[in-house]
Amino acid sequence: MKYTLLAIVSFFIMACKKEGSSSKTIVNSGNDPNFTIVQNTDAELISFNRKVSVFGIDIYAVPKVEDVKLLHAANVMAQYLDNNEDGVVDNTAVLDKMLENKAFVIMWKSESDFPNTIPEGRIGQDLGNDETNPSWHTNGHTGNFDATLEEIWHIITASGYSQAYPNIFGEYSGTTLTNAMDVARGGHFETIPTPYPSNAWYSYDDQTCDYNCMATEYNYWAMSSILGAQENRLNEIDNEWRLNTKDLVESTDVDVFQLLTNSTYKLPTVLPDGTYKH
């Protein structure tokens, strides 16, 4: 979660400049039937030696990122965007916005892997090799959590949903999402309250996380809880989020539950596990 803030607030910007690219297939040690790892030659992210494209969205990796983890991230993104796994993106308006904003993910091994220059005209998100844990899914949702579920959802909401439906999922004051968040936080706070009101169930306290960042995190906590990702994690997360099950979100955070289960927006209903079947 700490790297989410770095990615959204400090690392990436929105502007307008087209990148040229060409690529060639390289050895795919992950043996994935859905995605092919190719050599990256995109000039502004040249320190990332390879990438995978998911419905046109690039996921880049530095040399020390494991192939299996790069491919896991690709499968999770595919499952979020094509949740019924029929080979067709569920919400084309969201994908169109992601493509328009040249959305991308970088995968790193150490913080020194972050590039010195920021790609213009693109919205991005970072994901660490060591926080990418495919085994969490096969171990009954126990052990080291798979942060892929968080970081991939962040890029989909920040570059997709929030821009396809700005009045609904916009990450600024007065949208349907942030109105619900104000209730969840016990009030409208542009800065972190100390302490949060006693009736708050969302109490993220990273002082570097502004209001927009809070909305990004809130969307993730609510969506992942509805999908079942947080059921075994209450002791790990209750300092910032206390509705760790679908039933708790439905009974307590009524507004966000209605929003995130509204079929109009074709949001995921099944938690990705990194095994895209199409």
Describe the 3D structure:
There is one protein chain. This protein is an alpha/beta fold and 278 residues long. It is built from 11 helices and 5 strands. Strands 1-2-3-4-5 form a 5-stranded mixed β-sheet. A hairpin with a 2-residue loop joins strand 2 (50-54) and strand 3 (57-61). The radius of gyration is 18 Å and the shape is globular.
Short description:
The chain has 278 residues and is of the alpha/beta class. It is 37% helix and 8% strand.
Q: Indicate the overall shape.
A: globular
Quaternary status: single chain
Q: H/E series, N to C?
A: HEEEHHEEHHHHHHHH
Enumerate the spans where pLDDT stays under 50 for 5 or more consecutive residues: 1-23
Mean pLDDT: 90
Q: Output the strand order for the largest sheet.
A: 1-2-3-4-5
Strand content: 5-15%
**In percent, how helical is the residue content?**
25-40%
> Helix tally?
11
- Biggest sheet character: 5 strands, mixed
What is the terminal separation in angstroms? 30 Å
How is this fold's topology laid out?
Blueprint (H helix, E strand, L loop, with lengths): L1 H10 L26 E2 L10 E5 L2 E5 L5 H15 L10 H9 L3 E5 L15 E5 L6 H4 L9 H17 L1 H4 L6 H9 L26 H17 L6 H4 L8 H7 L1 H7 L18
Parallel strand pairs: 3-4, 4-5
Antiparallel strand pairs: 1-2, 2-3
What are the key terms here?
278 residues, alpha/beta, 37% helix, 8% strand, disordered N terminus
